Amino acid sequence: PAMLDLAQRAWQALAADTPLAVARLAAGDTAALPYLGAALHRFLEQFPGLQGGLDRLERETLEALAAGATSPIAVFRAASAAEARPFFGDTFLWGCLNRLAGAPRPLVAIDGPEPRLPQWDSLGSERWCLSLTADGERVLAGEADAVVLNGIDRWLGGTHLRPGNVWRWDGTRQELVPPF
Hints:
The chain is α+β, with helices and mostly antiparallel strands. The protein has helices at residues 2-15, 20-27, 36-44, 56-66, 72-81, 90-101, 134-140, 146-150; strands spanning 108-111, 129-132, 154-156, 159-161, 168-170, 175-177.
């Protein structure tokens, strides 16, 4: 019963229109589901960062590129190594890279047989070469904000991130910052 109750509360928190319930649940007692607290915390790190406007996976991706990774697989390996536990698969990362490259002010450049990484072809990914754009370098250096440069229209659970409703994650204080 304790596991089912906690799972139900977690689902309701994730489906809520703000991430506040997720933050409260992550900070509380999740012992009935031992991995839930860390998973919810990692979910919160997918909100745009207070500094730079990148979520954690976007930051890990840009850092991998800045460190010299140029193929999607090399970026996948580097970003995966930055995670304490498995968080994403290749399809999820390809979507992240495509979003960063397809933004009005791209942060990533994709050079290959198509302008975007196909979601279904991780084995053929060596045909693409990735790099940081000048804007990507500026965002990674903290000189620009990805949300300010490109806007935002994305769902994280039940929270619709859009102009006027941009929740941010403060990685230094490990807490949510409401829209301002």
